[in-house]
């Protein structure tokens, strides 16, 4: 079982129902695989189904969204049919998630220390002092300077980039097998985007966590991800080693995307 896939998504279909009752077929047969420790980028124009795919993996689809076909095997267990308890155990502890806007995931009235403490407790950390030590370690890992003095600060006392680092620390707290990051830096300026995405790449290398990174930043994809998948209209139009896809794009969308990189 040494080469078993960590994640094996097969022919996934997702639909939404529009307000007039029509079927919006957002994800049309996406297949993707991920080995332990592997880093994969998912790119594609807005509306191509990237977020819907990511959310469907953990059955977190909003509104009318539903999986209509396919399977999502995590270590061989199909999450599309798993019970709620099994799913809850997977979210956060096996799969850590980082989303676009840190403020929606952080509670403005709780300190950063409290945020981390609750995540660590949820993942079985029984000893308060050990949780505090781990919280400091995690903040250091994601590059928050002087973490010992920041535990009692609230989210608004940090910059946007630092808040995103805090979310990454929270996502890593459960020592997940996979980090799923959906455009985690869209709200940030270009330099900070680069720093955070590079940090994600570095962290996955040092911790052995696999990474699925949804991003538009092809420069960072080239530096941090071994493989890249291109989504277009809800289907995978490219899937290959990053260097190969970037050097010889097969789909016009990918070629256009590369031509637009300064
Ligand atoms: P991406 O993340 O690549 O920009 P999305 O997965 O957000 O794309 O969207 C894929 C398609 O699904 C789009 O046509 C979008 O309008 C539709 N969609 C996404 N979320 C919802 C929702 N909550 N309700 C209805 N349609 C949605
Ligand atoms: Mg999206």
How does the SSE layout of this entry go?
Blueprint: E1 7-17, E2 23-34, E3 39-43, H1 50-57, E4 66-74, E5 77-78, H2 84-90, E6 95-98, H3 102-105, H4 112-122, H5 128-141, H6 160-173, E7 178-182, H7 190-207, E8 210-214, H8 218-224, E9 227-232, E10 235-241, H9 242-247, H10 252-259
Parallel strand pairs: 3-8, 3-9, 6-7, 7-8
Antiparallel strand pairs: 1-2, 1-4, 4-5, 9-10
Bound molecules: adenosine-5'-diphosphate and magnesium ion (MG).
Magnesium ion is lined by residues 50-51, 182-183.
Offer a concise description of the structure.
With 262 residues, this protein is of the alpha/beta class.
Note down, in words, how this protein is organized:
It comes from Streptomyces omiyaensis. It is found in: Cell membrane. This is ABC transporter ATP-binding protein. Belongs to the ABC transporter superfamily. Residues 9-258 form the ABC transporter domain. The protein has 262 residues and is of the alpha/beta class. The protein is 37% helix and 25% strand. The chain contains ten helices and ten strands. The chain has a six-stranded mixed sheet with strand order 6-7-8-3-9-10, sandwiched between helices. Strands 2-1-4-5 form a four-stranded antiparallel sheet, covered by helices on one side. α5 (128-141) packs across α6 (160-173). It starts with 6 loop residues before the first strand and ends with a helix. Adenosine-5'-diphosphate (ADP) binds next to β2 and α1. Adenosine-5'-diphosphate (ADP) binds at residues 16, 24, 26, 44, 46-52, 62-63, 65.
